Amino acid sequence: MNIPNFKDVLQKLSVIKNNLSLLVPIIIALVSVLLFIPTQLMSSKLKKDVEQKSINDSLRKIKNLETSAVSRQQYEMEAERQKAHAADANEVVKLAMQTTQRELLSYNIFPAPDPNGFSGLIFQKFGENFRTGIDNLILSVNARDCPTDAEIERGLENSSSSSRTRGRGLSSMMSSSRYGGNSGMDLYGGGGSMMLGNINRMIIDEMCKDRAKTISVYINPLDIAGYEYWTNYKYDVKQEDAIKDCFYHQLAYWIIDDIFQTIAKMNSGYDTVLTAQAKRFMGITFTMGLKSVRKGGGVFRPVRGSRRTTTSQSKIDEADRPHYVRDIKSEGLSESYTGRKCNEDIHVTHFNFSIIISTKSVLPFMKELCSAKEHQFRGYPHGAEPPQKFKHNQITVLESKMGSINPNDMTHRYYRYGDDPVVSLDLICEYVFDKEGYDVLIPQPVKDTLAGKDEAK
Questions:
Q1: Which of 23, 299, 345, 444 has its CA 20 to 30 A from that of 211?
Q2: In Å, how far are 63, 115, 274 from 68, measured between CA atoms?
Q3: Cα–Cα–Cα angle for 132, 429, 142, nearest 5°?
Q4: CB 231 within 8 Å of CB 305
Q5: What is the pLDDT of residues 231-272, one digit of tens each?
Q6: Predicted TM-score (pTM) of this structure
Q7: What is the largest CA-CA distance in the chain?
Q8: Between the CA of residue 74 and those of 68, 71, 78, 84, 394, what are the distances in Å?
Q9: Separate counts of helices (H) and strands (E) for the chain
Q10: Domain parsing of the chain, residue ranges
Q11: What is the pLDDT of residues 71-98, one digit of tens each?
């Protein structure tokens, strides 16, 4: 190993010592050399990273933008799309209005009669149109009621008369069996011989079956709210009350029409009650007797024979007609899971009806009841426009109840429902009107009722 020659080192240092002015540049030069090499290495790596990542990414984004660049007509396309959305919204509003744009029983009453040449006969005419409309609906579903007691009696008398050709003895026995005792007429021979009682039963059964074979569904117009109400109508109330009365019964007619359309659809293709799906329309009510029936847990049954022979304020107030549901708890016929009530956009009413139907058709009937139906519209308020076909779908089932029936019960004594098992189906439903669709028709007294002004009086 060579040992440094310190003498030489000292001599060199002495040279530097003698030339101190060169020391600083030398140190700078050395530091520069030491920094140059790593700087170059770092610069090279940075350049490589920039090329690989930053520049390449930018180029890729630019190329992507070239393929996905917005067309210069893009704003026009967006405008068309927004226009289509607006058209869809307007169409929804239009369809909602059309659901409540229905034909009227009279175009001379709503929203108010023409004061020129006014006559109370227009209200009487409305009642006649209501009853005629119900009659036509009954005919449209090939409906009729079961034989009446009078028809049964005539049938038995005719049978008794024809039996006289086979001997006076049989005729006399039948007569004594049907009219004997203190119980009055006994159609089944309970006061006479068992044989003649059975004969009467057979005759009655055949008469009832014959009726069932000629119709598609049992319907008695007296079971329809409002039908008997308009019998022998007299205009003896204030005009505004008569207008309200007609308006609410117009709503009732629209609802009844929807039920009959449902029955017609369900019984399409069936010629007799014995094979039809909907067997018997039991009745409809809009008040349910102030809900007393529902509170007792029973099923609605119509009560016939409460004929209205005159018009008075109390009769109008007690009429079984629709009323608007402004508060569900106090004015609804059932708990409403929809939560709908009258507001600025819709008007709501409830109704209850009962029908005898085959067990297999219960759910299809409810589905059909709530499906869309067609109607004609001739314009408001005069009905003078060319007819247009619109659709409506306004019914929601709120509550349903099924019950078995006893064929031997007086309610079903003369009815024959065929071999399929049947049930009584009792429904409480909600009916929704689009306010804008018929606002032009609503009489001022009805608007006051909706606003609660009549209660403030």
A1: 299
A2: 9, 70, 69
A3: 35
A4: no
A5: 989 999 999 999 999 999 999 999 999 999 999 999 999 999
A6: 0.75
A7: 175
A8: 12, 5, 6, 15, 41
A9: 16, 8
A10: 120-142+219-456, 157-214
A11: 777 767 777 777 776 666 677 889 999 9
